[in-house]
Amino acid sequence: MLKSLKIRFVLIGLFLLISVVFLAPNFVDLKGVWKRYLPSDKISLGLDLRGGMHLLLALDTDKMMGQLLDRKFDSLKQSMMLEGVRFLALDKKANSILVTVRADQKEKLNNLLAKQFPEMKVTETKAEGDLISVDLTILEKGLAEIKENAVRQALETIRNRIDQFGVSEPEIRQQGENRILVQLPGVKDPARALELIGRTAQLEFKLVDEDNMARVTSGSVPEGSEILTMKVRNRETGVESTSQILLKKQTLLTGELLTDARMRFGGDIGGETYVALEFNSEGARIFDRVTGENVGKRIAIVLDNTVYSAPVVRERISGGKASITGGFTVDEAKDLAIVLRAGALPAPVNVIYQVTIGPTLGQDSINKGIQATVLGGLLVIIFMVVYYRMSGVIANFALFLNLIYLLGAFSALRATMTLPGIAGIALTIGMGVDSNVLIFERIREELRLGKTVRAAVDGGYAKAWVAIFDSHITTLITACVLFGFGTGPIKGFAITLIIGMIINLFTAVFGSKAIFDWILQKYKPRTLSI
Amino acid sequence: MLELLKDTKIDFIGFRKKAFILSACLVVLGVIAFIMVSLGKANLSVDFTGGTALRIQFTNKIAIGDLRKALVAGGIEDVQVQELSGVGEFFIKTKVSDTASQKVGEKVASILSSQFPGTKFQVLESNMVGPGIGKELKNYAILAVCLALLGIIGYIWWRFTFISGIAATIATFHDVVAILGVFYLMNKELNLLIITALLTVAGYSLQDTVVVFDRIRENAAKMKSKDDFGVVINRSINEVLSRTIVTGISTLLALGAIMVLGGDVLFDFAFALFIGLIVGTYSSIFVASPLVYMWRQKKL
User: What domains lie within chain A, and their CATH numbers?
Assistant: First the structure.
């Protein structure tokens, strides 16, 4: 008996030691050898406790698919003309492209498709006399791959942007098929961060369609051109004015070929903040050619379908340098440079869920949560001692063990402490108290039946065990379901409860029993203070 | 030995008819609340309806009426404004959510700074939920509750009897629905945290029921064939009564502390648990146990 008692205390002590080792980094800074071999992770606080922003972004893959189909449509048209496939009609539908040719062109078209468009498949072929119409879609396998790549690229891009913006410990990960979860703890200017993350940042250079500019007002846009909004901001007053501008649809150069983008002041632009761009050799070559071909014309700088400026090309520009002006503030120019450097998102993102908690509210919640927990805990501890005397002290020791183990487990699992998590701890403590109450009431019953102290304690534990076990399992079932289906804060509650239930079964039953047995063995009391 | 109760002999089963009337009222209220929730007519948080909720603190004092008027005039028509405490804090809620071209938070901020130029304000908390995701969260919450209940029936069925599982589930459902009813009556907001509280109450109520059933199981095993099952149930409940009271008191102490000191974020959560504690204890004694009794009577 004594031997097993020793083993039990060794076990309790061992767990306590492990918990303390994992908890230590929260209180002391480890140095030297200690730092190398001991865990150094601290319990991280959730956004609701320290403030910050939680975002769920959805990548608009439908829009991306639309754009992809647009591009396929254009290149199919060009290829058919180049290869001499005579087509009667070419229509763009919601998810497919419809080509109509005469029967004698069928073979040529098929060859072209097989050779140049392996990612397209024929879903339907209709023959009407001499006319054959073919419905083309993008292969599903290809689509899935494109979507997957797009999400991965978006993730990478957003990570880059956030890294350059400078937020400590951001969390960025994929959720579901096309969603991205972003958590920015302690971010000071949420609106600015959101602007930085959410911007598609598609930079394009396009030619202004001067010849047809008059048609902007009439609304009849010639084929191959499009109307975009041009934003001009007065640097001194900050007042923004918009106008309509007609651009050739064809993109001359995109932001993909950038090597660098930096915020700059003044120089020849006269004291204004602007973003200096630098292209790679391919970009520089294209820029050199495009500017050379269009001297005297205007080239528009388009960012996410908004025109920022449309300067006149005075001379051929070699060396691959350009700049974007637009009456930016310093912060705006800095952020714009970041998004251009980090690259464009493959598709627009929509914010579908956003929670922002100011740092003051977070601090306030912590203080109130801690105060409430401490007071609640103290009341329970006092109550247990008043009601159960010495046994109450033992129960409180079990509660203390429970708390240390729980926090140690939190540290070890690198779980995040949230407000519902604190509530979960409170509930666990409540369950711990209940377990001991169940046991003590049973022991009292056994004592009333006239049993000896030893027999009463053993009987009480044995009989209470079934009810304690069953109630813990039912709570565990609930907690597991919550963990599986809950989001964010609820998950925090569930994980606390899961860890708590398991630990509580150990501390409330095994832990307190060991102490009872030790006391009974050492002092062999005739009566029990319960 | 300090004892609150000594050897009680209360006829709990005898109270069952009165108790059922009370329970029926609670359930009816709860079911009405549930229907209202499903129809979207209850006070649901933006988590479930989609929309935007902002918590704003002003440096100067502002009348709630003026604030509402300013927001409506600024173009946010479907808006609820609630004053949080005497320190100039307001909770603004609208079903409008962000679109690609417009962020609701920014719109509110621009309305406030143009309408109340004399005072500064700070957005303490903002919560924007797209319309699709709200529905998704609501479905997840309902699914979670149903799955948890199913898992629990299964477990109790296995550990006790099938009818115990059913009775325990009815009692648990009764508790969850009763809290829903109380929250609906008080027009308190139902949010993800309250759903968490509901599930916690389900867990607590079950724990209570399991403790009572465990004692009934134990006493029924010792029962002589002539003993009335009602007597066994009464004896069992009386035996666990002191545990029920003691646990209840200690839980109340902890919950009370959270309600008083925890701040308004935790208050509703603790309040839901508080009601749950009372209803959950009541239901194990006056709903779950009599149900098992009546089932036995009918069969015998």
Answer: 2-46+360-523 (1.20.1640.10), 63-143 (3.30.1360.100), 204-327 (3.30.1360.200)
